[in-house]
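User: I'm putting together notes for a lab meeting next week and I want to include a structural view of one of the chains we've been expressing. I don't have a solved structure, so I'd like a prediction I can at least talk through. The sequence is below, exactly as it appears in our construct file.
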Amino acid sequence: MSETPGDLRYSRNHEWARANDDGSITIGITDHAQDQLGDLVYVEVPEPGREVEAEEACAVVESVKAASDMYAPIAGTVIEANEALADKPEVVNQDAYGEGWLIRLKPSSSDALSGLMDADAYREFVESE
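Assistant: Thanks for the context. Below is the predicted structure for the 129-residue chain, given as structure tokens.
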């Protein structure tokens, strides 16, 4: 089983979200997702300032196997994008929950994470797929 940190929230599209002390939310793809994709060769992240809706495709991760959209698990405004991934997409494979983050959002609502799964629910979801 892939790693599933207990302090994160998860979407049905295999994204994770972490609440930061400043109120922003850091988002990336789960260890399970990067494992399914295989070795990443390209990552495209949105420009800061872009408004995204929950479930909207907002980034692209491409592996040797396939290209896949990353969907925003919550609505908000992109305040930072991990530009380092343009030159080193493999960081997502190596550290999906750390240096491999994709974007940081200012959420549209204070309870934005409430609709996402906790780690236990996400593990069950992955096992049922």
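A couple of points you could mention at the meeting. The chain has a mean pLDDT of 95. The two ends are 13 Å apart (CA to CA).

User: Perfect, that's what I needed.
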